[in-house]
Amino acid sequence: MTELQRLLTFMRSSKRKQITLREYEQLVHQDGWTNGDKAKLINQIQKSGVLRYDRTKNEYVIRLIQ
């Protein structure tokens, strides 16, 4: 299961339409999640067409489009 699929499953199962990247990291990943992993997830979100992300002043907000 890719990280994008895990994120979609998490958002749909918890009935959330948006989540911050930091909050997702705290809820799902305990240790070993590098900045490279975060960058890969953000790139996958850009290409997905199902999710989008917005950069706020302090963090990324991931929103479910569909």
Walkthrough of the structure:
The relative contact order is 0.24. A hairpin with a 4-residue loop joins strand 2 and strand 3 (60-64). The protein has three helices and three strands, in the order H-E-H-H-E-E. The mean pLDDT is 87. It starts with a helix and ends with a strand. It is α+β, with helices and mostly antiparallel strands and 66 residues long. It has helices at residues 3-13, 21-28, 35-48, and strands at 18-20, 51-55, 60-64. The longest helix has 14 residues, at 35-48. A three-stranded antiparallel sheet has the order 1-3-2. It has a single domain (3-64), classed as Arc Repressor Mutant, subunit A, CATH 1.10.10.
Protein structure class = alpha+beta
Instruction: Write down the secondary-structure element order.
Output: HEHHEE
Mean pLDDT across all amino acids: 87
Poorly predicted parts: none
Strand order of the largest sheet: 1-3-2
What is the tally of beta strands?
Answer: 3
Major sheet size, sense and barrel closure: 3 strands, antiparallel
**Top CATH class:** Mainly Alpha
Number of helices: 3
The appropriate CATH architecture is Orthogonal Bundle
Q: How many distinct folded domains? A: 1
- Percent helix, as a range, is 40-55%
**Measured distance between first and last alpha carbons:** 20 Å
Rg calc: 11 Å
CATH topology: Arc Repressor Mutant, subunit A
The outline comes out as globular
- Beta-strand share of residues: 15-25%
